[in-house]
What we know:
Blueprint: E1 2-7, E2 10-15, E3 18-22, E4 40-42, E5 61-63, E6 67-71, E7 74-82, E8 93-101, E9 104-108, H1 119-125, E10 130-134, H2 143-153, E11 157-161, H3 176-181, E12 192-194, E13 206-207
Parallel strand pairs: 3-4, 4-5, 9-10, 10-11, 11-13
Antiparallel strand pairs: 1-2, 1-12, 2-3, 6-7, 7-8, 8-9
Amino acid sequence: MVITWYGQACFKIQSGPLSLIIDPFEQKIGLTPPKIEAQLVLVTHDHYDHNNIATVKGNPFVVDGPGEFEYQGVRILGVPSFHDNVEGKERGLNTIYAMDIEGMRLVHLGDIGQDKLIDEQIEALGTVNILLVPVGGVFTVNAEHAIEIVNQVGPQLVIPMHYKVKGLKVELEDASAFLKEIGHPDAAPQDKLTVKKKDLPEERTDVVVMKV
C-alpha cells in the first residue's frame, strides 16, 4: 500500500492497480487539487474542502456516508460521527471510514469534532493498524483531543492531517503541538509512504508526517 497526502484530509491510497481518493478539496482553500484518476472516492462530509469529486478523473465509485461497502476487494465501513462536540448542531455530521486493504485496517477520521470517540464507534472500528487523524483544531479536534482519540484507538501507525501548511487559506493550527505531545517533535516529513503489514510496529505507535 502506498499513501500520498495532498493537504487537508485528502489522501491517495494505492493498492496494486486500485487508486482510492479520500476527501478531495476545491482550489479555493489555497492548495492545488490533485488531478488524478481513481476508481474509488470516499467523502467524509459535504464541505468544499472535502467533497470536490469533480476533480477526480475517470468514473469512480463514490462513497459519501455511513454503511458497509465493498469494491474490488476493498471492504469499507462508514461509521457515523459528528463534526463538532454538540452532536452536529454547529457543523453537522461526519463519516469515519475504516478500510480493509492488504490485510491492514486503515481508518480516516475525516473532520471529527468530538473530543473523544464513543464506545459504539470504538467497537465498530475494531483493531486499527493505521490512523489518519486531524490535529489542526478550529474546525475539528485539536492536538490534545487528537492524542486522546489515538489512545482510544491504539493504532500501530498514526498520520496527522488537516493542519496548517504553506499556502493553505483555511485558518488551522500547525502540527507541532500534536507531534510534541505524542513524542515525535522532530519527525521528518515524507513524500510518500509505502506500508506493508509485516513492517508495522508490534508494541508501539509510530508517527509519520507527510509532505504536501
